[in-house]
Amino acid sequence: MDIAILLYDQFTATDCVGPYDVLQLMPNTTVTFVGAEARPYRTDMGQMAIIADREISDVPKPDMVLIPGGIGTVAAMGDDAVVDWVRSASETATYVTSVCTGSLLLGAAGVLEGLTATTHWGAKDMLEPLGATYVAERFVDHGRIITAAGVSAGIDMALHLAAQIHGDDVAKMIQLAIEYDPHPPFDAGTPDKAGPELSAAVNQLFARQLTD
């Protein structure tokens, strides 16, 4: 299976690295990082960068498309070449997937029209204008189209994909290999659990990041 992970400026690192660590352990799988240009792309934290080895035009029909999110998603939605590639690649791919606000790029390409989908909770109001209905789930599976919620949910989605493609035992082996056994020190991973004050503080942080 040939998997293309899209990069763009100011993507979120874990959105693609988390699923990558899972998917690249699947048998008979090649993972390629692609971008509008073959060059390094910096994350939304600024320091870390990942290299796109190939241009999107060189990878027109991957078996799986994976779109990460990040504060650069809105700018990427305004790049016609990127949106056109997402739309075209999604027409033939066996699986079309996103993590976090990557679902907004799928929406901009018309891939989520009429579907339920998930994204980062802070961007849920942006999904409906793009034709999808937000649901607060770790991931939403519509067969070949699967959207994951924010950041860490991409690992859950990738393990689900590994099970769909190669069976539960392979997915369990991968989970063991990456020692994915989360026991977070706080039960604050959703707005409902964290409460309104912490949720508002996080939204303010996002707003500052977008204006910096």
Indicate the structural class.
alpha/beta
The CATH architecture of the largest domain can be given as 3-Layer(aba) Sandwich
The dominant shape is globular
Given the structure, what is the number of helices? 8
Mean pLDDT comes to 96
Q: Which strand order do you get reading across the main beta sheet?
A: 5-2-1-6-7-11-10
- The end-to-end span amounts to 39 Å
Structure summary, number of beta strands? 11
List the secondary-structure elements in sequence, H or E.
EHEEEEEHHEHEEEEHHHH
Low-confidence stretches: none
Supply the CATH superfamily name of the largest domain: Class I glutamine amidotransferase (GATase) domain
- What is CATH's topology name of the largest domain? Rossmann fold
CATH class of the largest domain: Alpha Beta
Give keywords.
single chain; 212 residues; alpha/beta; Rossmann fold; 7-stranded mixed sheet; two-stranded antiparallel sheet; 8 helices; 11 strands
Textual characterization of the structure:
The protein is of the alpha/beta class. The chain folds into 2 domains: 2-181, Class I glutamine amidotransferase (GATase) domain (Rossmann fold), CATH 3.40.50; 184-212, no CATH class. The protein has 8 helices and 11 strands. The protein has helices at 13-23, 73-77, 80-92, 102-108, 153-166, 168-177, 191-194, 196-211; strands at residues 2-6, 30-35, 40-42, 49-51, 54-55, 64-67, 95-99, 116-117, 133-134, 139-142, 145-148. The strands form 3 sheets. A 7-stranded mixed sheet has the order 5-2-1-6-7-11-10, sandwiched between helices. The chain has a two-stranded antiparallel ribbon with strand order 3-4. It is globular and about 45 Å long. The model has no long low-confidence stretch (mean pLDDT 96).
